[in-house]
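Revision sheet: structure tokens.
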Amino acid sequence: MKKLIVLLLIFGNTFLLSAQKKAYGDGEYFKFRVHYGFVTAGYATLNVKNTTLNGKEVYHVRGFGKTVGLSKWFFKVEDDYQSYIDKKKDIPYRFIRKIDEGGYTKDIQIDFNHSTKKAIVNDKKHNETSVFSFPKETQDMISAFYYLRNKLDTENIKEGDIVEMNMFFDKENFKFRLKFLGKEVLDTNFGAVRTLIFRPYVQSGRVFKEKESLTVWISDDNNKIPLLIKADLAVGSLKATLTEFKGLQHSFKILAK
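Predicted:
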């Protein structure tokens, strides 16, 4: 299970909300159980806190994931992703990626200057700094989640619609795309919940079987809670199920328990 927290952050890009309402705020917390069938491979969390960065009020969002039990002994994963997001503009100022995946490690900090559209990438592992240009309204992997929750309207979205956005990851610009598949009432740990279903388009190759190997179910309410994530990987099928949450900005709509 090589990409525990990466999967969750990619899937997070699908959680959409209209611009009139703030979908999240200080204290929001999600915890996911990542599993192959009944076997728990690990846990991942997303946590939001108020803070300041260079005199600006921001949300500090941290995504953290690690393997547990036998999975930890077979292939240890400990991934730490962080983003500092402007509260009003919904743009990232800093992105941190510190990972250890079976001995494969990275320790990168990216600082975004949206005035010059330059990203300063500090590779702490190799003590290297480089500068890259990025297009307007570019997001990092975490900030994209929260940007889309606040800015995009799902009330009028139609089955088959495609959503696109600019993203910068490590040292590369790319277009992120996802497709709206429809609606479904999903049986969750909390009860039956109305959901929206999305399919992100991802690169096939080392991790994923094909471009359409991910499916995400999110709550069809003002929170847009990620409830279930399913990925068909090169080594089998992986699921991430929401087990805990707190600090929601809106009521969570449960049909039945």
